[in-house]
Amino acid sequence: MLKTLERYQKCSYGAVEVSRPSKELEFSCLQQSSYREYLKLKSKFEALQRTQRYLMQQPDFIHEIFDPEYSRNLLGEDLGPLNTKELEQLERQLETSLKQVRSTKTQFMLDQLSDLQNKEQVLVESNKALTRKLDEISVKNHLQLSWESGEQSMPYGHQQAQSQGFFQPLECNPTLQIGYNPAGSSQLSAPSNAQNVNGFIPGWML
């Protein structure tokens, strides 16, 4: 019986402990959602206040809203009942409205022109950078082609002669001896003369 009661208490209080954080989390989410909704309503209210203050500073606009006949007068309708003063006031209002429209249009066109000029400047700078890069690539390609064509057009004989210019053969003197011996030189010169005269080599030299 006691064990049964203990299990019941654990299950009951454990369920309470588990459900309590869930309720707290739900309440926190609801509180955050309410605060976000409050911020949205506050921003809308402030925007409406600004609009109201602006409209209160425009009596002609208020007059136009609450007087449909005045709206028709601005459109050039029902002008017969108006006197000279009312017509002059209407004319001034139309001129003021026309000036505002023209000023807004001019400012809009100036903004567009400035934007186009900025884009043009960016394109000009990009074009200059691309032109410089193309010039550099063209110069590199030209130098590379010149170097390759120069190597291919050089003849083999010219290269061989040029290489032989660095290595000149040394003249060898067969009569070179250490020391000077007149007899030996005369004996060596005699057979050579005989060879040149008779056209053959003596047997003792073979």
UniProtKB/TrEMBL annotation:
Q: Where is the K-box domain?
A: 31-140
Question: Which GO molecular function, any one, fits this protein according to its record?
Answer: DNA-binding transcription factor activity
The record's section on Pfam families has: K-box
UniProt signal peptide: none
Cross-referenced PROSITE patterns: K_BOX
Q: Give the source's domain of life in one word.
A: Eukaryota
GO CC aspect terms: nucleus
InterPro entries named among the record's database cross-references:
TF_Kbox
Q: What is this protein called?
A: Developmental protein SEPALLATA 2
